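Build the 3D complex.
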Amino acid sequence: MPQVKYTLDEDEIPTQWYNVLPDLPGEPAPPLDPETHEPMGPEKLGALFPRTVIEQEMSQDRWIDIPDPVREVYRQWRPTPMYRARALEEALDTPAKIFYKYEGVSPPGSHKPNTAVPQAYYNKQEGIKRITTETGAGQWGSALAYATGKFGLEGNVYMVRISYDQKPDRRPMMQSWGADVVASPSDRTEAGRAMLEEDPDSPGSLGMAIAEAVEDAAKDPNASYSLGSVLNHVLTHQSVIGLEAKQQFEQAGVEPDVLIGCAGGGSSYGGISLPFVKDVLDGERDMEFRIVEPTACPTFTKGEYRYDFGDSAGQTPLMKMYTLGHKFVPPPIHAGGLRYHGMAPILSALVHEGVMDPIAVSQLDMFEDSVAFAGAEGIIPAPEPGHAVHEAMEEARRCRETGEEKVIAFLLCGHGYFDMGAYNEFLSGELEHVEYSDKAAAESLAQVPDVDF
Amino acid sequence: MPQVKYTLDEDEIPTQWYNVLPDLPGEPAPPLDPETHEPMGPEKLGALFPRTVIEQEMSQDRWIDIPDPVREVYRQWRPTPMYRARALEEALDTPAKIFYKYEGVSPPGSHKPNTAVPQAYYNKQEGIKRITTETGAGQWGSALAYATGKFGLEGNVYMVRISYDQKPDRRPMMQSWGADVVASPSDRTEAGRAMLEEDPDSPGSLGMAIAEAVEDAAKDPNASYSLGSVLNHVLTHQSVIGLEAKQQFEQAGVEPDVLIGCAGGGSSYGGISLPFVKDVLDGERDMEFRIVEPTACPTFTKGEYRYDFGDSAGQTPLMKMYTLGHKFVPPPIHAGGLRYHGMAPILSALVHEGVMDPIAVSQLDMFEDSVAFAGAEGIIPAPEPGHAVHEAMEEARRCRETGEEKVIAFLLCGHGYFDMGAYNEFLSGELEHVEYSDKAAAESLAQVPDVDF
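Done.
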């Protein structure tokens, strides 16, 4: 039973992003200054981000125009397809209908360029010449390199050294797109030099790479820093996914009963889900929002909802979010994009208000179902959305038991072409269960400043 | 300057393939029996291929219906996009217009499933349970695994041991799609066991893997063998590329002056080019056909047009084609898919008749322009179509000199996500020039039986 594909015409690519901020329930929790712990105005962020991005970060406008040059770049791979997973339904012998939106068709292979492209565009518009960022295994760095390449900007990617050395596949990709990729810690920044002095063989960390990228941008008036998740403007840019999905559900004549996606910082799930939130809050749509995180880094399911730093060094603004504490170092799992101590403030607020429901999934269960999904549908999921694949299949199996004809929808936010080593480890029986440590999280949470507003 | 994308609706996926055989100039050169050297009838191929495939191999019907279940699977990624490379034109400062058709959007990442899917379908229809094939780095094996998975057939892929060990990324992909992948030489066949007895540490070769896959299929009445290039029916299935391209050129309002593509066995170039051949022969269209091969394996530009075996062991039918001799072992280049001693008889005849023009390109030039292409267009070419990318850029540079506003079109038949190690080698200056050996080719050609018909 082959899949069914729902495509849109190019002129159905949204012309505006949706900004959920004016529609959020509860009181807004402003970002706080890391030193004074007072609410932080836009002016302080000016050293790091372009004006338009800061405006969007705080905007109360429900709709924000997508600039034409951004839509032109989107057109290289958008609209992205939505599929009905008929072969998977058959394999699971379920009465449920399963739909998935697939973002792996972008050149960098994930949803990440949906925000990298407008961020590069706004920087270009405001005369910035160079964008710095950090990357772990390279997913976000690739998207930023793609975007800076498209607008003729310099891109500087600080790549965690252990990934730089051990996962070299995305490095030449970033370089081919014109980016300068440096192993972090590097000798280019004070933060990096200090770290190298302490340990010349340091494997680096995402927190260190952030510190270097931020320092580099802050010291150069011609440079900006760019972040690929967590922040409000990132989720707004990603809303293009959900706005397309809405049209595709209409085309398919269905209303999903449950909408599933994975979350590390929350950008992909924010993208698919936020355009549906107002309808649900207004009682016009009955949809369950289910966010899947790894059991190895269970920010929502085991963390606390409180103010915390975005980086491990404690230099970013404090944000109200679910967190395991900024000092928490998640154990190594293959879904590197889900190894983050915090979570987007927008999704955090929606979980706190009971609008969205989190659930945690282990990487062994994830790979088992990702392989089954690939066998049925022919697309190999990245380990991050593999978590959503597993939960969607679990829900479909529950429907088999209950006989419910639910409509299950999930976001497949990227392909697994760069993760075949992990698949190989799983298929050859060598992949081990990775345990989250309550003790480590408690110790980390104890170091979070006791701040509220 | 962003690219322009030309898309088709799903109902514009062709409903028939185009078979060039009735339109070929010159006398047909039938395949010859490897032992008797007499023309070979369809009956002898029955042990290896399903009936419908053999009929298509010899058909004089210009149009062959694409079965609905095959079109249904095609719909997962077809129609594939065509782009106008505006950013590349700008980067090259050329008055030429550059268009490319992109087949990398298929789940296996290349044009190969265009034939793997119908081959699996016809086998399924005729009651075959299992398909065997060989693969080098895994491009073709992936496509076949994808296709057998779609139709619930067993797939057995004999993978050259050195690739099995050193390029493991495509192995779990094939396994995830349900295929059984075994390193060749293996102990499953007489041919493999004989080879292992001679050398237990043999790295294997494509010729050996073909011998094992053929033996395995020939001995089991429930199994068939499948080939991913060279043969007529393969090129016919691939015509879906050119038939779509024809519609997209119309949409763009252009007629290409030159149509460029790479060739190893000839399936991708056959796919894009054959639907235009009749128009050109009839004088209704003025288009130059340019086939690009690697200087390391210059079958067209240095080989001879004569009968030769398809495999290194000399067990397949003799085919009239350009060849460097079936014993020729091409030096190792990264474009593994272009390392083949022979060439599709259809393309060979067209080159021999002067309808198509071959040209050879070195891998260093290829990577240099592939990186530049990626920087401008955002898509990273596999090294095989990188050869076409280079020649298209050369042509555009010539237009810059002459001022000609030519329309240059080429086929980008796959992405380079699985070739980033090769890109890394090039970008770090470690990639070496690889030399073709006249002497080796002469020695190999001396071993080709002196047969004609």
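The domain at 4-8+68-109+233-445 of chain A is CATH 3.40.50.1100 (Rossmann fold).
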